[in-house]
Amino acid sequence: MTIAIYVIPFVVVLSLVVFVHEFGHFIVGRWCGVQVDAFSIGFGPELFARVDRHGTRWRVAAIPLGGYVKFHGDANGASVPDPEAVDAMAEAERAVTFAAQPVWKRSAIVFAGPFANFLLAIAIFAGLFAFYGRTVLKPRIGSVVAGGAGEAAGFMPGDLVLTIDGTTVDTFGKLQEIVSVSADTKLAFVVRRNDKDVAISAVPAFREVESGAGKMRIGMLGLKASTAPADVHEERYGPLQSLGMGLDETWQVVYRTGAYVGGLVSGRESADQLSGPIGIAQISGQMAQAATKVGLGPFLNLIAILSVSIGLLNLMPVPLLDGGHLLFFSIEAVRGRALNERAQEFAFRIGLAMVGVLMIFSTYNDISRLIQRIAGAS
Known about the structure:
By secondary structure, the protein is α+β, with helices and mostly antiparallel strands. It has helices at about 1-30, 85, 90-95, 105-130, 150-155, 170-180, 240-265, 275-295, 295-315, 320-335, 340-375, and strands at about 35-50, 55-70, 135, 140-145, 160-165, 165-170, 185-195, 195-200, 205-210, 215-220, 225, 230-235. The protein contains eleven helices and twelve strands.
């Protein structure tokens, strides 16, 4: 039962996100006139399947760690071409293969997967804002943590933050958003104190915080929001406002992810934050349990964040991923011809190795954190 609490939400979350991603490839492929041989959720042994009137085999497999769409003429579900099979086809059959399509159609089909993930996230965030609204806190300081960067900078309880580096701050959430991605960066604040505007310079410190998927390093000043009734209010939004906020929330996830990747490259961030299937399963189970107390909001929010993450991951210019295919297509568009088969095969092998190493490393992180939690609990 304990395992089921984590496994079932994990399968639901990942299957939904993967289905939307693959459906993006599928539907745009159909629009472009490409025959789809198979649409699979999961890998490995087939649990059940059906074939539709277009000849597509819709299948559910035993290992729920991804999925694929296999287009006609491809060697496998990763859209690796099979030139020998395509050359042996009759002209009419060859015309509906993925490889026979012009570069712009192939690019559109490949990009449609990540794009569908972004659309799912926007829809979920917009729906949450439309149905639940949000609790908004004024950017007023309720208390200052002793010994923190905020105290050292001179913040005081009652200060109302007006701007940060010239950017207007109208909610405490906006303040947190800016500070969290600005660790070790000097920020210029303007606060209202006793009816006067006061300038404060502060450098957020790196702090490790525990999330459901592991440790995360963010910038913090040690400032807590005021919860006085005058500083708290509920906001409700119409459909257009919710859509705009859904777009903004999706962009913020993209921005924070990009900031982390940039920090990883520069050495400011640690790779031990990366999580794999075990970490996703853990946080999925936690959000599913939270849903019994506070509703589906946190669980749906997790699906949206994971959808953005999978969309971004697939856009990385790594052979085997969608971004790698798009890179190949860009080279083909510039050169006027595709890379030779040998070069593509070598690149796909490198891409497979890179994806494998990432999966092993992230799973290692998950297991290490799990062992640490067990040891700590004992």
